[in-house]
From TrEMBL, chain A:
It comes from Nakamurella antarctica. One of its GO terms (molecular function) is peptide transmembrane transporter activity. Residues 118-510 form the Solute-binding protein family domain. Residues 1-23 form the signal peptide. Gene3D superfamilies: Dipeptide-binding Protein, Domain 1, Dipeptide-binding Protein, Domain 3, Periplasmic binding protein-like II. This is ABC transporter substrate-binding protein.
UniProtKB/TrEMBL annotation, chain B:
InterPro entries: BPD_transp_1_N, MetI-like, MetI-like_sf. Residues 97-326 form the ABC transmembrane type-1 domain. The keyword Membrane applies. Belongs to the binding-protein-dependent transport system permease family. The chain crosses the membrane at residues 103-123, 135-157, 203-221, 257-283, 303-329. The keyword Mitochondrion does not apply. This is ABC transporter permease. Keywords: Cell membrane, Membrane, Transmembrane, Transmembrane helix, Transport. Its main location: membrane. PROSITE patterns: ABC_TM1. GO terms for biological process: transmembrane transport. It comes from the Bacteria.
Length: 593, 336
């Protein structure tokens, strides 16, 4: 028996030694020079290291740099979800952009903490008076992280690459189609060409790019600051088949470029995406044209659950995290953390749709429902500090916003009177609200619904409740116009009315069913005309006029609130500026000792 | 024996085929779709229609299923859209599976190492303080929801005490070498002891959270089983023969009492995946349970299909092995 045990132990020991000799640590072999364009596969086999041999896992705080200089610190940020991939052209989600914004840049950027455009890869720009031709002076001495030089040709290669997307790529490059319209030779279902605002891009010399448009649009050139319009290395784009997006079964597959080799001009470069450990690691770009990043390593740790992010932060294993619950703001601040509130750049609205409820076609009914809702009480009791009742469908920092609109102050008596006038004293509405979701403009959908349901019932409206999961029928149902009333909203990408009301109502076939109203097409035309007006004062007046009509004559929905989201960093973190566009730059962020 | 094996294998393929068909139909019958999950608030009816067209989701369901089978036959189960976007669904499963195995192993180890000795000691001291405390403790263990226990453990041992990491599988600054996907094992194999220790520290709290219910069940089964055996005639006979207490406990009591315990452990193992969904979500632990929950919530059909089919295949294969071993032991089974 003893011999048997001895033999067993010997066998196990031999096996262990054999296995361990097959697998050796690759820390040392990977520790030099491997700072860019590593892959998920590479991350599973080789990764740079600075801490081999340490017996204790370094905590977030112990790995921090000590001062404001370009130190060797590591900054770990708790991200709310996994990035889709790393080519911003094909992304629409904040989890992807928060990473790619650190690696890539556009011709324009946004001033930290604002929605104002500022020079980035273009040092300056001018346009013809009609706003159809834009000349950009390209910053000189800039290189991509693969060593390739940035010049006018590289810029035009990128712009043309965006314009010539086809098939699956065209469905994924949503920011292009949302802002500039059709792609090259793109046709609608009926075979007609989908028009594009973009005409051409030419490089007259290495430092000059001219972009011509087919018609003026108010959003140009500010949209060039969006991550989707980032300028990436033409060499890398070609080398790693960046356009090779495929639709396969129930999903899209992305090319090697988007998964492993994003190559921009930003202050950080891609190191690895360790999907098994849910981390994305970036390294400081030592050849960055501007001020070098203050942390050497930037890690995004993906923690989908908000409570789990907070506990990681409380435990000191991450240095900051995204979208803390507003209920935790005070406690976090009291504990010494910095809650950085992003200026509210969003809108929550209550949509009306008359498709299944003809009573809603009557303006008086929609007005009655608007007077019935106690929005000030909802905003003060349910939303975080800094939230405001919305007067228009976009924030007051955007041109055209006017306080001179119908305000629908809480007035249940007036609501009842209007319902009586409309002959709808026994009105029944089918009110939809989403579950399994929180949005920056709607932290708690259930609370919104409960508050407004009570308000509507108080004026005699019967409310039939329909709650569905966000991705489990809610969005589809709202788009299919199944709801009479519904809760939805929008977070702005850039500061023009077109980004808000243009997106909502320009196409008459929309979730509000504006095509069913006699004024649906008129509203569309008014929005198209305002966006195409090159004369700024005139355009501002046009948008102000539309705002007034939206609130008094049309009322396809009722704007509810603008609610500020936040991010939080530890007390010893410096340099983080919260952005209304979630355009936070981590290159300026560092930890003091 | 060969005919029996072939017949069983044929049945297995048929089971998986029927399951894949049902799963495919069922998922697509659910409200909501991938298109709206992709475009969110940016959706318009045109966009949704366009996405559905490009993805082929506007085609008849049987045509979609046929294409799925065609791709699956080539080992292509689609690409993850949400769990690990861009990664083949099968690779997502293969990457996440070791994490869940590690966690389940840790949970079972915790349950067995604590549960059996405690159950045995409680039985030995039946009616005493230790026994009563054990019974009450296990009742509490079963009654407390896993997610609550998980948050409590994290709050005490990670946030307040700072003894253990609150979530994840490994410190992101560790830069560990990956070999098998089992982080702890990889640390041992590559002699990166810090990485092994770190992954072990990350396993402790989720293992305790996941292992609490199995621990309580194993404790109670061990206790009652030992009590049963202690009353058996052969134990009394052994005592009358003057055998040493140690020998009686080891050879006669424990061995016989452990039979139902082993069966219970087997049953509990099957239930661990269900528990892993909650535990992994709370601990942001990237395993199969978290992938299952996320893929269902966000309509990541390729991952959902692969995970469910792989779980079913594992179950069917284990059944097949059991059937074959029965057939080897008892030849009469082959003719049934």
């Amino acid at each position: 028996m003893k011999l048997y045990r001895l033999l067993s132990a010997a066998t196990v020991a031999t096996l262990a030694v054999s296995l361990s000799s097959c697998a050796s640590s690759q820390r040392d072999s990977a520790s030099s020079g491997n700072t860019t364009a590593a892959s998920p596969e590479a991350s599973s086999s080789a990764a740079p290291s600075s801490d081999a041999g340490s017996s204790e896992a370094p905590s977030a705080s112990s790995s921090a740099s000590s001062d404001g200089g370009a130190g060797d610190g590591t900054f770990i940020f708790g991200s709310a979800g996994a990035p889709s991939m790393f080519d911003p052209l094909y992304a629409t989600d904040g989890q992807t952009f928060i990473v790619t914004r650190q690696m890539t840049e556009g011709l324009l950027g946004f001033k930290p903490g604002t929605t104002e455009s500022e020079p980035a890869l273009a040092e300056s720009w001018t346009s013809t008076p009609d706003g159809l031709s834009w000349t950009f002076k390209i910053r000189q001495g800039v290189t991509f992280s693969d060593g390739e030089k940035l010049d006018a040709e590289a810029v035009c290669y990128n712009i043309e690459r965006m314009y010539t997307q086809t098939g699956a790529g065209a469905t994924q490059a949503q920011y292009w189609s949302d802002t500039l319209g059709g792609f090259k030779d793109q046709k609608a279902e009926d075979g007609t060409a989908i028009p594009s605002l973009y005409k051409s891009c030419s490089a007259s010399d290495p430092a000059t790019v001219v972009i011509d448009l087919n018609s003026f649009t108010s959003k140009f050139p500010s949209i060039l600051g969006l991550p989707a319009f980032s300028i990436q290395s033409p060499k890398a784009l070609k080398q790693y088949n960046a356009n090779d997006v495929k639709a396969e079964g129930d999903s899209f597959s992305y090319p090697e470029y988007a998964l492993k080799h994003p190559t921009g001009t930003g202050p950080f470069t891609f190191t690895k995406y360790d999907s098994a450990n849910q981390t994305v690691e970036l390294t400081r770009n030592e050849n960055y044209w501007g001020e070098k990043a203050k942390s050497k390593t930037l890690i995004f740790k993906i923690i989908a659950d908000e409570a789990a992010r907070k506990q990681e932060f409380d435990a000191g294993t991450i240095d900051g995290y995204d979208t803390p619950s507003s209920g935790d703001w005070d406690a976090l601040t009291a504990a010494g953390a910095q809650v950085l509130v992003r200026p509210a750049f969003n809108i929550l609205y209550l949509g009306f749709n008359p498709t299944n409820n003809p009573a809603l076609k009557d303006l008086k009914v929609r007005q009655a429902l608007s007077y019935a809702l106690n929005r000030p009480d909802f905003v003060s009791s349910q939303l975080p500090n800094g939230a405001k009742v919305a007067l228009n469908f976009y924030p007051d920092t955007i041109e055209g916003w006017t306080p001179d609109v119908e305000k629908y102050e809480y007035d249940p008596a007036k609501a009842k009177a209007l319902l009586k006038e409309a002959g709808q004293e026994a009105l029944t509405v089918n009110f939809w609200w989403p579950t399994e979701v929180t949005r920056p403009y709607m932290p708690n959908p259930s609370a919104v619904f409960q508050a407004f349901k009570a308000d509507l019932e108080a004026v005699g409206v019967k409310v039939n409740e329909t709650s569905k999961p966000w991705n489990g029928g809610y969005l589809d149902g709202v788009e299919a116009q199944s709801a009479d009333l519904f809760l939805l909203g929008w977070t702005g990408d850039y500061a023009t009315p077109d980004n808000f009301i243009g997106t909502f109502f320009t196409k008459a076939k929309n979730r509000f069913g504006t095509a069913d109203y006699p004024w649906g097409t008129t509203l569309s035309n008014e929005l198209i005309a305002a966006d195409a007006e090159a004369d700024t004062p005139k355009r501002v007046a046009m948008y102000a006029d539309i705002d007034k009509k939206l609130m008094s004559d049309y009322l396809p929905a009722l704007p509810i609130s603008h609610s500020p989201p936040a991010l939080v960093v530890a007390g010893n973190v410096k340099g983080m500026v919260a952005s209304p566009l979630t355009d936070e730059h981590f290159s300026t962020v560092y930890k003091t000792s | 024996m060969l005919r029996f094996t072939v017949r069983r294998l044929g049945q297995m393929v048929l089971v998986l085929f029927i399951l894949s068909l049902l799963l495919f139909m069922w998922l697509r019958a659910l409200p909501g779709g991938l298109a709206s999950s992709i475009c969110g608030e940016r959706c318009t009816p045109e966009k949704v229609a366009n996405l559905n067209k490009v993805l082929g989701l506007d085609q008849p369901i049987l045509v979609q299923y046929g294409k799925f089978l065609g791709r699956a036959a080539q080992g292509n189960f689609g690409t993850s859209a949400k769990v690990i976007p861009g990664k083949p669904a099968l690779d997502v499963f293969l990457e996440r599976f070791p994490a869940t195995i590690e966690l389940a192993f840790g949970a079972l180890l915790f349950a067995i190492v604590i549960g059996i000795p405690l159950g045995y000691l409680a039985a030995q001291r039946k009616g005493g303080v230790f026994d009563n405390l054990g019974v009450i403790g296990t009742l509490v263990g079963i009654a407390v929801p896993v997610f609550f226990l998980a948050y409590l453990l994290k709050y005490i041992f990670a946030v307040k005490m700072g003894w253990l990491p609150p979530s994840g599988r490994q410190d992101p600054t560790m830069n560990a070498t990956r070999v098998t996907g089992f982080f702890f094992l990889d640390g041992l194999l590559t002699r990166e002891w810090d990485a092994a220790l770190d992954s072990l520290r990350h396993l402790i709290l989720p293992s305790i959270a996941l292992g609490t219910i199995p621990l309580a069940v194993i404790f109670r089964i061990t206790r009652s089983s030992v009590l049963d055996v202690l009353g058996e005639d052969y134990v009394r006979t052994a005592q009358a023969k003057g055998l040493a207490t140690q020998v009686i406990r080891r050879r006669h009591v424990l061995r016989n009492a452990l039979l139902p315990v082993v069966t219970t452990i087997g049953l509990q193992t099957g239930g661990l995946l269900a528990g892993a969904v909650l535990t992994e979500t709370v601990f942001a632990y990237p395993g199969i349970g978290a992938a299952l929950a996320q893929s269902f919530r966000e309509k990541d059909y390729p991952v959902l299909q692969v995970v469910i089919l792989a779980a079913a295949a594992t179950y069917v294969i284990i059944n097949l092995i059991v059937d074959l071993s029965y057939a080897l032991i008892d030849p009469r089974i082959r003719t049934r």
